Amino acid sequence: MAAKQTPVRSVRGRSIGVRSWPIWELPDWLVAFVTIVVLADVAVLGVAASAVTFHAHHLWLFAGLLVCDALTVELTRRVGENTGMVKDVYATWELPAAILLPMVYVPLLPIVRFALTQWRILKAPVYRRAFSAAVIGLSYVAAALTFHGLVRLAPGAAAHPASHATAWMLCAAACAAVQWTVNQILIWTAIKGSNPAVRFREQQFAKEPVYNDVAELCVAVIVAFCVACSWVALFFAFPFITLLQRSLRHARLVQDSRVDAKTGLLNAATWERQATTELTRAVRTKSALAIAMLDIDRFKVINDTYGHLVGDQVLEEIARTLTSQLRDYDLAGRFGGEEFSLLLPQIRAVDAIRIAERIRSSIAAMSIIAPGAAGGERVQVTVSIGVAALDAGTERTFSQLMSAADAALYRAKGGGRDQVQMISTTRGLSAVSGASRGINGAVRDDQASAEPSVFRRALTS
In which element (H, E) is residue 271 found? Predict the structure, then answer.
């Protein structure tokens, strides 16, 4: 947060204006990469413009595709621009342009679209819009070159698509695949360069993003084929594409309803539902499982001392720590306020407390700097964790296991905070670890009283 609020000139001695853009905080090679991509797109557009011969048919088709693109932007304006890696439907208009129009129109359509987005929806840093338009433009240029190279292998397909439907659509599908590949390479080079912690597999190869990509490109190929036969198909395609756009946004709304907006973890209702399912499976298969409740120590003091923006940053950093420390099939959620809940399937009690201790120590080592006149102050963050382990072959309900984890957390808070305590379903209170006391260590003399956790308060209210 402090870095975003500090003028760039204080970092590299640059003045305000263009040189204050956050792009200058990126590695030099990434700045060069972004610049090269934008210049390459401009160069392609310039070369194509110098060699083009304009025809009325091409101009009308470009105008029709541009109107559809602009209307799609206007529909997006009503609900706001997508963020993250969520896909939209612009390829359904821009891929046909790459296939059916001369090269000069190919990079031009994304430029116009992003200009409209900047004007009508949300004003983002100009260099980001320029880079995005350049990446998409170059990916469509590569797609256009692929299509025109392949369609020559099927004589007559370019002039008469309906008579050579199979060959034509296979060439268009290969063109779409090339566009997707080039776009992913360029985009993810920039994303990983600016944030190496981002996981490509989770962001792009999850079920929903892959389905969205395939659906969008398949529809784009169909639209391109129909328009190649008759440009009147645009009038019939637009209502169908708006329906697809709404379906993609519905998927995003479903995802948003499952996660906590501030941390990106599962919200309490979704975590409880999935944790209950996992617990039922563990009881049925007689496998081990653990639930952990994590509470930030003296979080109100952090908010009162440094402000709620720093408090929000603490929540976000803890969420990132949890994600990095847990396995892919573990479940992490924000239980409420400053509390988080973890489900650790197929894990023994001794391993569960080791994972909890690793999480506790990682959070204690976090470096969060609160803005200040003297260059900022490090915010010390600690957590207390209560773990409840379901031993293999035992039976407990979700409520019973949560109550056990909550009791362990309540004891950790009362035992001095910044520690882990665990309750096993067969052995009772079985382990304690943390900075305040070691395994089987004694409670410190200065231990402080603790307020009941969210779960305990819910049970007693």
Answer: helix 268-285
